[in-house]
Amino acid sequence: MMVMMVAAKSISARVGAAFSARSYAAMLHHPPRDATSLLTRCFATASPNQEDEMHRKQYLISGTGQRSKVTCQTNTNHILETDVPKKMGGGDEAPQPVEHLLAALCGCTQATAVYCGRMMKPRLIIDKIDFNIEAYRDERGALSLPITETPTIPARLQKVAGTVIVTFKDGMEVSEEQLDILGKQTEARCPVANMLHASG
Fold it and tell me: What is the pLDDT of residue 9?
């Protein structure tokens, strides 16, 4: 994943330097064959101790799928829907799942950056962040036949790249060192970015 973040004095003027640019090579991955335990195997982590459990933040979501569309409800009373384009057999009635993933990256980065900025000394108060993210994958990873054989090409995203333009409140001047700390700590503390990095 390669993302460039810069500071902006105003909406039109951009200053600062690129930071936290990383490139991750795609690694071949063969998923478990036992479909009943696929999610458990993909997301299981070490059993937490009692102290870890005290700091656990849990997410609950339920959903129902018909044809290619899924409607989900979160335990925070929000509705999320996904679909795929008509050319892929869908109804194109909602964003694609991967688009939700990239939107989640933007949202998680926003929330994490605002928190990190407020905790810095001196505080960096973010007015807004503009995201321009693009990604691609090799469709053969999902569509290759025969269906009984695991694809040799990973289905996951092979590249996530873009720019993140940060505008600070009242045109606040931010040094390269401050921006570097903000960027590194945002990347390190953003759960969605962590997950994308771990996936390779």
Answer: 41
